[in-house]
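Example record

One chain of 253 residues, shown exactly as stored in the release files.
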Amino acid sequence: MTNHPFSLAGRVAVVTGGGSGIGLASAVAMAQAGARVALLDRAPNKADALVLCGNSAFGVTADVADEAELEAAFDAVIAEAGRIDILVNSAGLAIRRPALELSIADWDKVVAVNMTGTFLACRIAARHMIAGGRGGAIVNVSSIMGFSGGGLYPNISYQTTKGAIVNMTRALAIEWAGLGIRVNAVAPTYVRTPFIAPLTSDPVLVGRIEAMTPMGRLAEPEEVAAAILFMASPGASMITGHTLPVDGGFLAQ
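Predicted structure tokens for this chain:
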């Protein structure tokens, strides 16, 4: 099993936003692939999530927008597991407002979590990976809205920050390639998670999403997690700087 291209046996993964949605699905997939998984989330109670991941998982609490909290959380992972090989940046925030109505305070909140939080986690994880001398793999979670200005509603702060993650991924991949750290991203379509529960509870909106998607349906979190698992695995050892749409053909139109 350890020679399988998608095995993560012996590796330690940190998943931000690991308490629910894509983050939790990714943590479960990595645990099933043999990794020891740290679920990093600002919600302190992750008991249900940890049960889904099995005995190899443990929780750490931090707000990704708070550098000091994030540093302490990664230090706690090192203290518990001894190393960090994989980072998945799944923590995210959306405040769905048109540009003319979006307050700067709300803009700053979204930027702090989606863009700055992703950068901080990448930088902290990379420092630990370099110190460990083994390199590593980072997978950021962007969105189809990082490539598209359209959608069901105006969402300027989310679209801007998710677009920034695409180019952040490229830039860090180039900067850290010589250090043995691969940096990639996924760009999911609308995914059935608590994050978009207000949309999926409305059959009319679900119908509009299905009509916008060539494959005619929303994605499931496990489908995005499978792509993240691939990007983090030895099977993707020659892939860096790439953002993989997981979108049912949305961006191919």
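Notes: The two ends are 39 Å apart (CA to CA).
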